[in-house]
Amino acid sequence: MSSDSAAAPRPHPVDPRPVRRMVPRSRDEPHRVATPLELFFDLCFVVAVGQAGRELAHDLAEGHWGDGLTGYVLAFFAIWWAWMNFTWFASAYDCDDVPYRVTTLVQIAGVLILAAGVPRLFGEQDLVLAVVGYMVMRLAMVTQWLRAAAAEEGAARAVALRYAVGITLCQIGWGVVLALPEGARPVVIPLGVLAELAVPAVAELRFQTTWHPHHIAERYGLFTLIVLGETVAAATVAVQSAVDEHEGLGRLLPVAAGGLLICFSAWWIYFARPVHEHLRGNRQAFLWGYGHYLVFGAAAAIGSGLEVAVESAVHKAHVSETAATATVTVPTALYLFTVWLLHSRHVKTGPAQALLPVAAAAVLACTAAGGDGVLAAGLVSAATVAVGVALHARER
Is the pTM value of this prediction over 0.70? Predict the structure, then answer.
């Protein structure tokens, strides 16, 4: 993929009119930060993340591992992919006029429809409401790309049109999925996911949109914060409910302490070093951006796992203590390893390079501790942060 645009972008207009031409913003625009609309967008999307996490926790606690993980992977893909596409488009073309704001609010309405459909997706494998919500978000994105195409010319216009056509074709495909018999869906849905993932790669094969590296890194960091916040909130509610119903505070304290250490460590590790300088072109940015499906998904799943661990501590879960602990340690290990793979390894040298992979393996090993495994995983995570800080101090 090309790492440089074929032509320099035009400057972003300062225009108070309610409707502006959607010209590209500069990659070198100073002081580029997330807007209030983007922050509102994130907060509404995390409603769907929380819904998916609660349904996952319920299925895992009941021992329905296959149904829970399948529903979670599919629901989280829909949430993440719509969020990601909006984020990169906004980085390149946010003109903040009335049509842009209204279209973004339509996308927010779409994710709320999707969130309402998540329980049916998990419980009855009913895709209709979730797919309708997803299609609302994605078709709204088509109108944004058509606006960009109308203001562009040459290669940039072709990119915008390829996005619009590609997204539209994918939504037609999802409509067909709803008409298919349930037995055919396990085969067709992965093809639809691959088609969605291919659209940006095909659209920007020879020309790169003018996304802003620092803005993109900030947007991903903010969504990581919100997802971790949802994880803390889910675990807090689970502990409160368990205490109210069972008065088993002594059994819950180790789970709560371990969960808190994991969440604190997850925040520290993600934001230990800035990553925007690594995002030099589409090759690096696409791999980094796509890989965050695992970062976000694992971070949210930690909260689901903590809910299961709490239920196990008060003997409400229908799984063993080891299995309940695994619902925390597995996503924690995945989070640590993926954060290392995506950006920590690009800014660390020497022994620090191996720190997060080793920590991920140690967290997985904590599963064998059964009921004490969550606390053990929290201590390992905290120790990882401490060692990382010490190694960074030595480097300086």
Answer: yes
